[in-house]
Amino acid sequence: MLSIGIVSENIFFRAAIKRILMPRIFHKDHVIAYYDDLPLAMGRNCHDILIVDDAVKSMLRFSMAMTLLSAIHGVKVFLTTEEKRRLLFRSVSRDVVVLDKKISIPGMSKEFSFLVDKVTQHSALNGDVEGGTVRNTKNRLTESEVETLHLLSFGYTVTQVSRILDKSVKTVSTQKCSALRKMGLKNRVHNLLEISSGFSEVI
């Protein structure tokens, strides 16, 4: 069963997304839930796909947490944005895609259909999500990597993080490199800063 969460305060946005998805994935084997705010969708029972309206007030505050949610739980996150289409998060096993809200409904439907097909095909190859647990854990971040990446993304240096976490500089540096590699990002400062803001340029 595929579980989908739609986060938006706009009932028309919800209705539009539901109409777009219905021909492809809205049937008895799929569940769609609606939320007004992002934190409400970040509970223990994670969705396989999370569609977020960038007009949600808490978007900026929880952009980092949402990125980590994808890394830890393998959740597929689709965003709509007023800006040029960009890639929020990228890894070997997961894709988080930002869609431009200004494109037409037929165009958006085509984009969603392509992405949903991609998700479905990938699930068949790598195992579905059951009981909130991802079977394919090869590229998932560890709790230590998440903790390290979270602090580094706020501008702390490797040395400062090592003191905060009471770990050696070498350990923190290794965890940083490992986390970025799993996320498909190069070991550069601007990548950490972009993760904290929730956006990374398309590769």
TrEMBL record:
InterPro entries, sorted: Sig_transdc_resp-reg_C-effctor, Tscrpt_reg_LuxR_C, WH-like_DNA-bd_sf
Keywords tagged on the record: DNA-binding
Pfam family, one: GerE
Signal peptide as annotated in the record: none
Source species, domain of life: Bacteria
Gene Ontology molecular function terms on file: DNA binding
Segments forming domain HTH luxR-type: 134-199
UniProt xrefs under Gene3D superfamilies: Winged helix-like DNA-binding domain superfamily/Winged helix DNA-binding domain (1.10.10.10)
Swiss-Prot/TrEMBL GO biological process terms: regulation of DNA-templated transcription
SMART domains: HTH_LUXR
Protein name: Helix-turn-helix transcriptional regulator
